[in-house]
Design goal:
With 140 residues, the protein is mainly alpha-helical. The protein has seven helices and two strands, in the order αααββαααα. A hairpin with a 5-residue loop joins strand 1 and strand 2.
Length: 140
Amino acid sequence: MEEKNLSAAMEDYIKTIYTLEKSSKVARVSEIGRALNVKKASVVAAVSLLQKNELIKHERYGFITLTERGLSVAEKIVKKNQAVYEFLTIALKIDGGKAATEACGMEHAMSEETADKIRQLTKSLKPRGAGKKIKKAARK
């Protein structure tokens, strides 16, 4: 499965694992389930698929970590999310909570080229010093 063939749900799993790894160094099935508000069986099925496609490593009943390839995919997803979030909050003045929810939905359908153009536009509109605050909010 190539990264461009990942479903929105699989991208959400990868992004969640990425976020959990950043905060805890590893992810667990239960933590992923809580973060995505899904049942353990759904997480187990998704983890199995992601492992089969060499995007994560998972020992049965153990920790889940992104592979090098999985990390690359996760970083692209996070960057798209951040680009959309910044556009929504800076250019369109949408509330941060609503922007975070909508950015999560929009990131899946967007090409890298479109995300780059949104980043360029938003950068020209961004007030000085806003970057760090926006990045932190987008990761939540």
